[in-house]
Amino acid sequence: MKKAAAYLLLTVGAAVMIYPLLWLAGASLKSNDEIFSSPWFMPESVDLSVYARAWQTVTGHTMGHYFLNTFAVIIPKTLFAVVSSVLTAYGFSRFDFPFKRLFFALLIGTMFMPAIVTIMPMYLMWSRLGALDTYIPLTVPALFAAEGSFVFMLTRFFSGVPKEFDEAARIDGCNSVQLLVYILVPCVRPVIVSISVFTFLWTMNDFLTPLIMISSVEKYPLSLILRLSADSTGNGYEQCKILAMSVIGLIPSIAVFGLAQKKFISGITAGGLSG
Amino acid sequence: MKKKYRNPVGVSKYTGLLLITPFLAGFLLFTLYPFVSSFVLGLTEYDGIRQPEFTGFGNFRKMLGDSSFLNAAAVTLKYTAVLVPLKLIFSLLAALTLNMEIKGIGVYRTIFYIPSILGSNLAVVIMWQFLFTSDGLVNQLLELCGLAPVGWYGDSVHAMGIIVLLRLWEFGSTMIIFLNALRDIPCEYYEAAKVDGCGKIRSFFSITLPLLKNVIFLNLILQIIAAMQEFNAPYMITGGGPLKGTYTLGMLIYDEMFKYREMGYANALSWVMFTLIAAVVAAAFGITKRHREDI
User: Fold this and answer.
1) Is the Cβ pair B229, A116 closer than 8 Å?
2) CB contact under 8 A, B273 and A116
């Protein structure tokens, strides 16, 4: 009886959470009249041609072009974030050095630094370096372990790997680099997956940074092209087209989350060693 | 006496420093430098083209008489004060419900978590804008329940409601943090309490809540910082309107910087915003001090 109540509560909650997304998918196939008259998400008839029209966008470039732009940011950024965070976390968790506690406190401090305070001076800095309207401002900061939370997560996992592993490896003649590459990195694979997935999702979601740094339309990432399309649609315009673009824009995030979900969840939930 | 560094044999005390060099360089370049230069530029008048002109605390004095700053500050504080407690309560309740060991619970956890990972994606923000139009889904559902439709974009209270609801819908990441903390509580505690004749509600207030103190505080701080920086949702959904009722500090800084090219003023504003966030966080720190163990 109690179980049934729990399931009922959870199912109603889950329906409320997921319905807007179902509605979005359905409404992308509806006519304007139907969008604004029927709350049920299923369209009366399914005509996928709107997706072909949405793919063309309003700029002369296809959505494919903007996907490539986005990936041109995401791929180096993910690589940079993983390498720099792993190195920094390795330093903090396996070595003793001057001012270690102070530096770790600074790292935690950056996690609480509001991005909007630093983004204006960064804009001026990149502008002076002539790097505006390139992907440098979007990718290069990741090279410097810019996400304190990633390093923090990794240090927690590194400290879960027994120090005996290190000693055994060193006796077998591993140096500090080999120890990291052959012993520690394989132990924290789930965290590395989590970092990559988070970087992917956050970059897909990031709107303010490209809005400020990127000015030419052909270099826009997905988020900016969605804004441009939403802004240039007035009343009477085919609403389903912008909704279809939104669906297309969400597919990579949903796909990556779906693929990595198991590893990803274990990476963010497990406190100890796994994988 | 010289300090001893405990490192494996043959490893110098500089190896660790070398490994964290990327972080240290990044801290100087992307945190400390912008932070300081923002303050320095805040003391000038600067249009991005001509040399900055030093004006002392002129920008800060200007703010006191700038009605759009005072309004934006009030809107931001109000938004934070409404959203953050609601979101924390909501995520804690959801986490408590999802902490059961029943079949299929993983699927529910995933569903509750999904909105938070897609949440700030612009596609979702556009969707949200559609949901609240005068004959959009939300009003259709209200009518279906026999309620009067609401003019969501008509007044500032409802317009802010749209944004608060969007951010509430994304409670998943906060919930996951609570859920992890709940799973760390040994179930022996609850069993012992049960033996002592302790009811469900009593054990929530006497066991769960005290053990969650630090996590609640962490979520509180993270949510305050995020809410006070709100930019995407009002920018896309309401455009700050109606009558600047959802015009946040984030939007004001953006407009001063890029619309009016008042870069000195924009930097002064972002410094004030930092101070404001720090003050709110410090207040939260002070208020919860009595109830919090040292982290």
Assistant:
1) yes
2) yes
Can you give chain A as a three-state secondary structure string? CHHHHHHHHHHHHHHHHHHHHHHHHHHCCCCHHHHCCCCCCCCCCCCCHHHHHHHCCCCCCCHHHHHHHHHHHHHHHHHHHHHHHHHHHHHHHHCCCCCHHHHHHHHHHHHCCCHHHHHHHHHHHHHHCCCCCCCHHHHHHHHHCCCHHHHHHHHHHHCCCCHHHHHHHHHCCCCHHHHHHHHHHHHCHHHHHHHHHHHHHHHHHCCHHHHHHCCCHHHCCHHHHHHHHHHCCCCCCCHHHHHHHHHHHHHHHHHHHHHHHHHHHHHHHCCCCCC
Instruction: Mark the ranges of chain A whose per-residue pLDDT is less than 70.
Output: 1, 233-237, 263-275
Q: What's the CATH code, domain B71-291?
A: 1.10.3720.10
Domain positions in chain A: 1-47, 48-269
Q: What is the mean pLDDT of residues B115-124?
A: 85
Are the beta carbons of A20 and B135 separated by less than 8 Å?
A: no
Structurally, at CATH architecture level, domain A48-269 sits in: Orthogonal Bundle (1.10)
User: Hey, are the CB atoms on A117 and B274 less than 8 Å from each other?
Assistant: yes
Size of interface A-B (CB pairs under 8 A): 246
Distance between A99 CA and the closest CA of chain B, angstroms: 9
pLDDT digits (tens, 9 = 90+) for A115-124: 877 888 889 8
